[in-house]
Design goal:
Elements lengths: L14 E4 L5 H10 L10 H10 L3 E8 L2 E13 L3 E6 L9 E2 L2 H18 L3 E6 L9 E2 L3 E7 L4 H7 L2 H12 L3 E5 L5 H11 L7 H11 L3 E8 L2 E11 L2 E9 L8 H15 L4 E8 L3 H7 L5 E3 L1 E6 L16 H8 L3 H12 L4
Parallel strand pairs: 4-6, 12-13
Antiparallel strand pairs: 1-2, 2-3, 3-4, 3-5, 6-15, 7-15, 8-13, 8-14, 9-10, 10-11, 11-12
């Protein structure tokens, strides 16, 4: 598809097109400059989706007079187990349309609907931080995000953590934990893989994390915490403008007792603040989960996420999440799998968990 329903409007005309390699620098420049854009609007995600999972990317942009006025990145996820969907953006907590005016936004949304209809997907899903499409079905009671400004002074940030949680950070310090930033996933992946297996979730393939590191370079960073020379917790974070986003994290079975999770995220915050980053994005959590409570205990206030749907073949909003009762037995069984077995089977299943 070279163009997606061209819509000439206004004196210079407005057209929605499919991204090609020649336009990638202009797309990246728009994302960097647009206040509403996020790390997950970056063009590199298209390469990651296609290389790591084989999911086609349909990256749409609205332009007039040779200037981009809005973007809408879409990934097409189609699996036997989890259905057929067009998502902005798969495996990302944010996405959806970002544009500098209502005309470009409307044209991009219409083009996405047209594409969803032509592909005959089950549904089109746009992941927004604000309600954009009040006429569409919306899932706004499941996921929240946690974001907070951080100070250049680490003592100010430490004192901003509520007393009980701050005590856990200090406990990690007293246990002699240390942290190290790394440019690869060698220590991160085994910790993360075993951690998600214990939660009952199929692990993403190792090639996915390699693709993230290779694609985003210095904007993807691993921080690993050690106890007596052994890695006990690790997180892969993204950096975008003045924000740090710890995104994929995990710990060994002993990590909780060592306060290694608390120390890990404190170290990410401390290092980021010292490097000039001013927003700490703790990421998405499901309401009522341990992760949700952990982030609230750090003094972060939950902000609802608005996942908005255009239903094509589906009759209702999908419920592909661990809180769905139909997945309960699967989760309990997955927790009992030996880690080597889970690491072999997990990548085949997780490619549909976009």
């Amino acid at each position: 598809m070279t163009e997606a329903r061209p819509r000439p409007q206004g004196p210079a005309g407005l057209t929605v097109r499919r991204l090609d390699a020649a336009v990638e620098p202009a797309w990246e420049a728009f994302v960097q400059a647009c206040p509403e854009a996020t790390f997950f609007h970056r063009v590199g995600w298209r390469r990651v989706l296609e290389q790591a999972f084989g999911h086609p990317g349909h990256y749409l942009y609205a332009e007039s007079g040779g200037r981009i006025r809005g973007v809408l990145p879409l990934g097409h996820v189609k699996t036997l187990l989890f259905g057929n969907a067009l998502i902005s953006v798969p495996f990302c907590v944010y996405g959806g349309v970002v544009a500098e005016d209502a005309e470009a936004e409307g044209a991009l949304i219409q083009a996405a609907r047209d594409l969803a209809e032509s592909l005959q997907v089950d549904y089109l899903e746009l992941r927004h931080r604000q309600r954009r499409l009040p006429q569409w079905p919306c899932k706004d009671d499941l996921y929240v995000t946690f974001r907070k400004a951080i100070d250049p002074d680490p003592e100010v940030n430490l004192k901003a953590i509520p007393r009980k949680q701050r005590a856990m950070v200090r406990k990690g310090m007293q246990r002699g934990l240390s942290s190290e930033e790394e440019g690869g996933i060698e220590r991160f992946f085994p910790i993360y893989a075993d951690s998600v297996r214990r939660l009952g979730t199929p692990v993403f393939p190792r090639r996915y994390f390699r693709a993230l590191m290779d694609t985003f370079g210095d904007a993807a960073r691993v921080t690993t915490v050690h106890h007596q020379g052994r890695p006990v917790s690790s997180v892969l974070s993204f950096l975008f403008r003045d924000e740090v986003l710890p995104y994929y994290g995990g710990g060994t079975a002993e990590a909780r007792g060592l306060a290694a999770f608390d120390f890990l995220y404190w170290e990410v915050m401390r290092r980021a603040a010292g490097a000039g980053y001013r927003v700490f994005d703790y990421g998405r959590s499901k309401r009522g989960t341990g992760s949700f409570q952990f982030k609230k205990n750090w003094g972060f206030e939950p902000e609802p996420l608005y996942y908005e749907y255009h239903l094509v073949r589906a009759r209702a909003i999908p419920e592909i999440n661990p809180l769905n009762p139909r997945y309960r037995l699967f989760i309990q069984g997955w927790k009992r799998l030996p880690t080597p077995v889970a690491n072999v089977l997990g990548p085949y299943l997780s490619r549909g968990l976009g």
